[in-house]
Design a protein that fits this description.
Length: 120
């Protein structure tokens, strides 16, 4: 592989897959369950999210914790190695704001279910 010792190339190999940086961005906020990540990453398929999480786990960027409950609960969090990528995401946020005019929030606020009022 050309440039296999180049640190930029090695990092890009890990983080440049579609959705990967967004998964890291969301996990930078703290632990998340699969369904929470799926909701915050609108448009990602469950299969793609699963593949991205598995690849990040294999790279030591994400830790998966399974709780012995019924139904089983699984949470994902950034490892120390994963948290070291957060400044890259923050730099991208700054760049997007300053140079691309992107000033909206990166993630949508979670929808809050409002109970319907029954008509009398």
């Amino acid at each position: 592989m050309p440039n296999s010792d180049c640190p930029v190339c090695r990092t890009a190999d890990i983080v440049c897959g579609k959705w990967t940086l967004l998964v890291i961005r969301d996990l930078a906020e703290g632990r998340s369950r699969f369904c929470e990540l799926e909701r915050s990453l609108e448009g990602i398929s469950p299969r793609t999210l699963s593949l991205r999480l598995r690849a990040l786990e294999e790279e030591g960027i994400v830790a998966r914790q399974t709780f012995p409950e019924v139904p089983p609960r699984v949470e994902y969090a950034l490892t120390e190695k994963g948290r070291a990528l957060v400044p890259i995401i923050e730099s991208m946020r700054s760049y997007g704001t300053e140079w691309l005019g992107a000033d909206a929030a990166c993630t949508e606020a979670p929808e809050i279910a409002v109970p319907a009022i029954a008509a009398a």
